[in-house]
Amino acid sequence: MRNAHSGVMRTLLVCSEPDTPSVNMKAALLRKGEWEDGGSDGSASYLLSERYIMMTVPGLHIYAEDADSVARKIADFDNMVFLSRHKAASKMPTLTVHPVGNYKTADFGGRNGTLCPASPHLMSATLRAMQDLNDTDVYTVSFEVTHHGPFTETPAFFIEIGSDESHWGDLHAAEILTDALLAAEADGDNLTAIGVGGGHYAPRFSEVALSHRIDFGHMIPKYQIDGSDDDEIVRMIKQASEMTGTKVAYVHKKSLKGPEERRVRALMESEGMETVSSKDLDPIISR
Fold first, then answer.
1. Does the first or last residue of the chain, that is N or C, have fewer Cβ atoms within 10 Å of its Cβ?
2. Count of alpha carbons within 13 angstroms of residue 167, beta-carbon side
3. For the whole model, what pTM was predicted?
4. What would be the CATH architecture of the domain defined by 191-280?
């Protein structure tokens, strides 16, 4: 294992050859730094820089199970980021980041009912950098809630260009996201929280993270809560908390009806969770 850059936090970047935005983001990053050949292990090829390991896989990375275990044979790292496209029926131009894992069935990689470790500080810092660097009037910047694979044991998140084929090839969007990755500085002093409630694009959590000193890890949307019994909700809350490394939750209360909100809060309290609202948070003065 090569670890010549001792003391420097390194991140594993995963590029998927069939994924156009992934390939474009890789190309942009290679132009912006000095890289050396890290060889190949037969299932992936590697490039190394001071801060990053670039792993390129021949298939879709949502199915690249245990990619971190494989890559550690090449070099060590602290976090991993999957460079990716985003697809949505809305076709709205969107730049997103999101945690990895499946609350219930693993329909697109990963394991059933299993979340991967989140990277709340780096992911939230990247969201803020994306917002700062988004010089277009085309794209919206937001979180997405936790969804899809692959399974990893390393703190991870996806960074994506969407939401359909007409946006995937946008080279300027690839520049924005790669500049954001390079500029993001994780602040370990920010409050760490899971998000509970809201929709898939987590508009409230995105808004709060962009304006206050709170970093989100796993987010449980309302559609995962709907139809779930108490035991299932407790399981999701407990795992989201453990995989984010926090006992703090921010509830999007306007997305939940009164009885539903009280039920969820009671279940969180049963797990020793603390809830916070915007009034409890320090605002971001400037970035």
1. N
2. 22
3. 0.95
4. 3-Layer(aba) Sandwich (3.40)
